[in-house]
Structures are given as structure tokens and as C-alpha cells.
Amino acid sequence: MSDHHDDVLSSLAAGRTPDGLPTTSRGGPDVSVRPAIPADADRIGEIHAATMRAAVGRSAGVEADDPALGVIDDGDLALTWANAIGVNAPGHRVLTALAGARIVGFAAIAPAAASDQVDDVPEGSTIEALALEIAPGEERAGHGARLLAACADLATDAGARALTAWVARGDEARTRFLTAAGLAPSGRRRYLPVGPGEVVQDQYWAALGG
Q1: Beta strands 31-35 and 162-168: pairing type?
Q2: Which of 32, 77, 83, 206 is surrounded by the most beta carbons within 10 Å?
Q3: Rounded to whole angstroms, how far apart are CA atoms 127 and 113?
Q4: CB 31: neighbour CB atoms within 10 A?
Q5: Rounded to whole angstroms, how far apart are CA atoms 3 and 119?
Q6: 3 vs 171, which has greater pLDDT?
Q7: What whole-number distance in Å separates Cα of residue 148 and Cα of residue 106?
Q8: Helix-, strand-, coil-residue percentages of the chain, each rounded to 5
Q9: What distances in angstroms separate CA 131 from CA 63, 95, 136, 169, one per listed residue?
């Protein structure tokens, strides 16, 4: 277990950005992360649908606007996230990233499934970042770093010893981002049917706490 994982996530939580991550200007536009509210669900569904279409399109070798990807529906995802926002249970949180009053991204955490627990930490102490998505056109503005910092902070507060995230094969931007933030491959992989294709995902993780 590398101390680098703790050091980088601690820096993010403290508002500092290590080498390789987007910088955040304290004197720039009004940006923040806050807990999601029910009224955010439609916008979260819209962002998630757009990022899912792009990811599945890359995996399947089709454009994000291909009609076959129409099965990834904004409304269906909005309903899913509305339900998630309403969950009041330990370790479950949905967050939104804001630029002014605009929702430009979101993230969600929950306790990892038994089969996805990290081997090197006590059983039941792994929190998974279920989603961390930035709206197209809003990337590279530090929103992802702020969301990840908030996820790590909330996971630690919930008593977690590890934070995990799944990354689609071929998603080089997300892989670079998580690697720069101190997460490393765990060796686990999974196969998910999404829309007309299948997405292969690798699990990344970082230690939390002391």
C-alpha cells in the first residue's frame, strides 16, 4: 500500500492540486461542490446520458450520436438519479459540481459490493465512486478534482479505508486523471452490457486514512 495514495488524496481534499491534475484558481469563476437535491436529477441524467453515449461509442466504434445509442435515455437516467438522491443510508451520497449556478458535473459514492471489496483493507470498509462525470465542454476546469476530493472526504467520514472507481477500457483521459490522483489498478475487471455494446471496466483504488 503506497503512502502516495494518501498524500495525493489529502492534497485534493485540502484544495491543492498535484502535478497532472487541472489547477483551480481561487480568484476565478465561482465553482463549488454540494450535495445533490431532487431538482438536480434532470440535469444529472442529461450529463450522464451524454458521457455514457460517448464512452459506449468509443468502445463500440460508433459516433456518440449514432441512433443505436438512443437506448441510453436522459429521462431514464434522471429517474435513476432521483431515486439515488433520495437514499438516506451510511456511505451513500450524490454530489454536484457547480460553475456559478450551472450544474457541470456530478459524482456518487456508495459502499462497494462484497465482490468488489479491496483485499488489503478490512472487509466492509471499501467505498466505490459509482460515477464521476463532467458535462461535455466543461472538462479541464478542475471540476473532476473537486468532486473526487469530496468523494474521498465523505468516504473517510463514513469510516472507509479504500476508495474505488471503475474505468472503461480505452478511456485514457479518465485513466490518466485517476492515476494522477493516486489511484492504481486493483487487478479486477468486469464486463457490462451498455446500449448496443459491451464495456470492459478495470477497477482502480486508493487507500484512505492512516
Answers
A1: unpaired
A2: 206
A3: 9
A4: 18
A5: 17
A6: 171
A7: 10
A8: 35, 30, 35
A9: 22, 10, 15, 16
Q: Round to whole Å and give the CA distance between 38 and 25.
A: 29
SS3 of 6, please? helix
| pTM for the full predicted model | 0.81
Rounded (10°) CA dihedral 20, 35, 83, 160: 60
Question: Hey, where are the domains in the chain?
Answer: 3-19+29-36+93-207
Which residue has 450520436 as its cell numbers?
65
Are 204 and 171 in contact, with CB atoms under 8 Å apart? Answer: no
- Three-class SS string for 103-171? EEEEEEEEECCHHHCCCCCCCCCEEEEEEEEECCCCCCCCHHHHHHHHHHHHHHHCCCCEEEEEEECCC
Residue with cell 451524454: 50
| Grid coordinates belonging to 81 | 438519479
pLDDT tens column, 45-61: 999 988 887 776 666 66
